[in-house]
Amino acid sequence: MEFIPLHFGDRLTIINPQGTVGVVTLWSKPEYVVERFREAGVDLDPATSPIAVFGTLYGNGLRELLRNLLYNPQLDTLLICGHDRSGSANELSAFFGEGLERVEAGPTRYRHLSGIAEIFTCRIRGTGRLIDSLVQSTDFKAPPRLITLGDPKEDNTLKGIHNFFASYQPAPFRGTDRLEMPLPEVELQYFPSNPRSHQVIQDTPLKAWVEIIFLLTRFGRRVTLKKGERIELQNVKAVVEKPTGDWSNKLKDFTFDIERLRKYQAEIIRSKISRELKRRPTKSSLKGQIDILSEIELRPDEAYNYGDRLREHFKIDSLQTFVTRLKNDPEDRKAYFTLWDNRKDLKSRSGNPCFVSLFFRKFQDKLTMTATFRTHNALDGWLRNFYGLMAIQKWVSNRVNLPQGPITVISHSISIDPRELDRALIVVGKRKWRMHLDPMGYFRVSLDGGEIFVEHRYEDVTLAEYRGRSAVALQHQIARDLALSDVNHAMYLGRQLARAESALKEGKEFVQD
Question: How many other CB atoms are there within 10 angstroms of residue 180's CB atom?
């Protein structure tokens, strides 16, 4: 039986279509893993190799991988050999070993498929991975063996690869028919808005992330990229006022693992600096500038990583340079760094950094930080990236002796995969409305003679006064001054103005709610 991919055929590295082994490279580049297999002495001849295909598994492609396996039952073995950055290896293993459990889907609804009564949202037992119910482990008449070989960059892994193929014999093929299982679609339409105007302001990273997912599911526009469809918004601005992390149990409610987030924090500021050469400043150089001679290296299966871009790629340790600048001048506005390498990244078709700039500023006696992302995977990337940003801010703030202030993240293109809408809508279903005080102040409404009198106040100070005989006239005055910023506050004020106008016309007493 010949290997025929139903999904991601353009992204898979097919070796021998008649082969019976598949290799899952997780987050590692398939071409790197292929080369390591070659170094281990594995037969990669398209006519004789036992390997049919190499392919990644970042996490989001699990549905497609399972469907490809059902359609190609001749694959008797899956070798897991790659950098397991997101835990997808455990999710794949748990699918076959533990199966699925149904979860409360909230507002999630799948489009009806002919011949299928109902589709449920499920979780792979023992993991946080959500998936549809159409593919079950019991659908596999002869499930493939899962063998974990480890990280391909390790020498011990090469020995494991060699030893496996030295004794590998294909399992007798039982003549199982191909099974083609469709991918479900979540029914959803977007609501009108300016897709470039959305802003989120929340106290914690998790609350901000939930709000971003809500905005995308409600207002996101469908676009078609080379990699497939996405639901996208542009230039979303998120401000987290208290970027100190979230409680572990709250993260678990949304299937985030605090240990993985901490590991990511360590990676993003990692530095293996062995020597530092301080040069005497010249007129054209920054006082205290440090040239770095370091041992930072990219993993062989990485096109880039943020630790490298921040501390080595441009031959300057940006984090240490931020500290030097801000110590020399706490009001400095040049603590700005770009991670985008124009000479390299503009020409490269893949392996381009999403995190592209960083700006520090002392503001209101705190160290604030603004980060810009070229593109953002909202479901799986945004919160993890934010935890990395918190680690960067903490590293710098500790050394300049300034408390951590708000972090602002600007995402030029932020999106979710439509196939992941079930996951997104479960997040949205947990979103709770909470009343927020308008940072622009509040309003006192009363009647004064023959007019409605409105005071715009902040704490105990009157900022402005407005007078008029109708709610409409006052509405226009207040809107002209941009005197409020919260939708709920605006609706409340509108109700009070309407009540005041009615009381004025009828000669009744008015008391503000």
Answer: 9
Asked whether the beta carbons of 457 and 441 are under 8 A apart, the reply is: yes
Please say whether the beta carbons of 155 and 143 come within 8 A.
no
Tell me which amino acid residue 464 is: A
Main-chain phi, psi angles of 23, to 5 degrees: -115, 120
> Is a pLDDT exceeding 50 seen at residue 314?
yes
Question: Strand, coil or helix: what is 391?
Answer: helix
The tens digit of pLDDT for each residue in 446-496 reads 999 899 999 999 988 999 999 999 999 999 999 999 999 999 999 999 999
Beta strand segments in 151-260, E = 199-202, 221-225, 228-240
The closest alpha carbon to 198, from 188, 187, 212, belongs to: 212
Q: What is the DSSP string of 271-293?
A: --EEEEEE----TTS-TT-EEEE
DSSP helix/strand/coil, 451: strand
Tokens standing for residue 502: 């009615």
Q: Residues 421-428: what's their mean pLDDT? A: 91
Q: Which of 375, 372, 383, 314 is nearest to 350 (CA)?
A: 375
CA distance 349 to 71: 31
For the segment 423-429, the average pLDDT, to the nearest whole number, is 91
The percent helix, strand, coil of the chain (3-state, each to 5) is: 30, 25, 45
Please check whether residue 326 is in contact with residue 363, taking contact to mean a CB–CB distance below 8 angstroms: no
Q: In what order do the strands lie in the sheet with 77-83?
A: 13-14, 51-55, 21-26, 77-83, 145-150
Region at 235 (left for phi over 0; alpha for psi -120 to 50; beta for the rest): left
